[in-house]
């Protein structure tokens, strides 16, 4: 056992560590939530990961996103995260796709490798729903993140079936879109039962496929990311 994995091995045991080492996890979206999920999954010893995100670091990301620093503004998020993960585990096998995933490209993405788990950390509705639908249609293991914006109480964060969530506008929108696509299967999600602060939500028209943006605090996306990681690791 490599020295950096010793503490995790004490908890999980060698057989489970071997399983993680052989696993391949796809993470789509490496912003506030996805980057923390990716790092926690990497630190636990997962041996292969594919990261997808076409975005670059912006000054507004610095308050909550793992790769976002004054020195990294303008750089691709997946490239920064890839560099960081290789510093954690030099043997990790990474596929970095610095692209904005489009609906029509999702089947090809899901079919290009044998994924043991899919992590949905997308914050735009259409590709999010297509990724969910295509993953469920392929019987892939998937966990999806709902909205962490305009919320502050970490005690309200929970796992739930998408169809049973409350007080989450993103969950409601995803349910509506999936029903139109004929998708009714159970979908595990991470979400917050807390009511969003309406004063922390503003309408916008200058971001790709977004109609609004929410105020955020540093720790909430990290908590969501850790929930995603726990779900994936436990089930692997």
From TrEMBL:
Residues 11-234 form the THIF-type NAD/FAD binding fold domain. GO terms for biological process: cyclic threonylcarbamoyladenosine biosynthetic process. Pfam families: ThiF. GO terms for molecular function: tRNA threonylcarbamoyladenosine dehydratase; ubiquitin-like modifier activating enzyme activity. Coiled coil: none annotated. InterPro entries: ThiF/MoeB/HesA, ThiF_NAD_FAD-bd, Ubiquitin-activating_enz. CDD domains: YgdL_like. It comes from the Bacteria. SUPFAM superfamilies: Activating enzymes of the ubiquitin-like proteins. This is UBA/THIF-type NAD/FAD binding protein.
């Amino acid at each position: 056992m490599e020295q950096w994995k010793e503490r995790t091995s004490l908890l999980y045991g060698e057989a489970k560590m071997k399983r993680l080492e052989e696993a391949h996890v796809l993470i789509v979206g490496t912003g506030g939530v996805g980057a923390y999920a990716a790092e926690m999954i990497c630190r636990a010893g997962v041996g292969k990961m594919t990261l997808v995100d076409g975005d670059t670091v912006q000054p507004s990301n610095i308050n909550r996103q793992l790769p976002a620093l004054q020195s990294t503004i303008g750089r691709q998020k997946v490239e920064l995260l890839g560099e960081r993960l290789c510093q954690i585990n030099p043997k990790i096998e990474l596929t970095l796709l610095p692209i904005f995933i489009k609906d029509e490209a999702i089947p090809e993405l899901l079919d290009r490798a044998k994924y043991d788990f899919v992590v949905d950390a997308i914050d735009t509705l259409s590709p999010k729903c297509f990724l969910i639908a295509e993953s469920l249609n392929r019987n892939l293991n998937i966990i999806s993140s709902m909205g962490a914006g305009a919320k502050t109480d970490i005690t309200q964060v929970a796992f739930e079936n998408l169809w049973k969530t409350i007080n989450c506008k993103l969950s409601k929108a995803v349910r509506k879109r999936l029903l139109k696509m004929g998708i009714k299967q159970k979908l595990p999600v991470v979400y917050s039962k807390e009511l969003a602060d309406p004063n922390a939500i503003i309408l916008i028209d200058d971001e790709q496929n977004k109609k609004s943006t929410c105020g955020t605090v540093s720790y909430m996306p990290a908590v969501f990311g850790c929930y995603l990681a726990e779900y994936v690791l436990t089930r692997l």
